[in-house]
Amino acid sequence: MSDNLLFKRTIVRHDISSHYLPEQTRSLRVYLPPGFQQWISYPVVYCQDGEDFFNFGRIATQAQRLIIEEGWEPFIIVGVDVDKKLRTSEYSPDGERHANYVKFFSEELVPWVESHYPVRNEPDERVLAGDSLGGTVSLSIALQYPTLFNRIISLSGAYYDCSIAQLTSASSLSQLRVWMTVGLQEDAYETDRGVFDFVSLNRTARRELQARGAKLVYSEKDGEHKWGFWQKEIPDALGAFLGPNAPVFE
Fold first, then answer.
1. What Pfam families does UniProt report for this protein, alphabetically (predicted)?
2. DSSP letters along 181-213, please?
3. Domain count for the chain
4. Fewest Cβ atoms nearer than 10 Å: which of 16, 45, 130, 158?
5. Does residue 97 belong to any structural domain of this protein?
6. Which domain holds residue 150?
7. Model confidence over 69-106: pLDDT tens digits?
């Protein structure tokens, strides 16, 4: 397969309006698979930190390769951009903008995408993906809107106490399927809230999820809290929900 075909990707940018966000707009980038047709329905992956997933995670290039070279069913990717200065406020459950961001995502973004692109609208056909606090807000969205989302990709999720509190307040999470990974060298990572052991955070989240019936694919690997680690994990993460040989969630 020629490199030209792999790198000839279709990525469309949009600015969509919002009643919930103070700035009233949010930028998106949408990857359309090779052979895209408006009359075909596609699974869809929604990525927090959209710019980073596309630029550093190379998720569109990786999806293109998986579809062309490995014969995966085509799927659409929606990357939702974020202002890094407001990221913690939007993504962390105790952030000032969190409630409005979750409402924007679930009540404005998803309907907009589904009215403009032929994506499937069943929760089993939607995947939420996030790194660090992006994993946190993805879980928060799925907990608050279970009829929309029950599939999550979590790359080194920042599961601080406020996220664990969300989990412990839930009675049953049997509908959730979560693909989780964390790097073993993330045991003393400095964040804007202090230094955290992300391995411990993810182990706690794993325990609380499983205690409430969620099914997981969980791994701890050599890796740091950066895109050099996460980029390599994206094919397996996507494959858990979209690939022809999905792993067993336990």
1. Esterase (PF00756)
2. EEETT-TTEEETTEEE-HHHHHHHHHHHHHHTT
3. 1
4. 16
5. yes
6. 3-242
7. 999 999 999 999 999 999 999 999 999 999 999 999 99
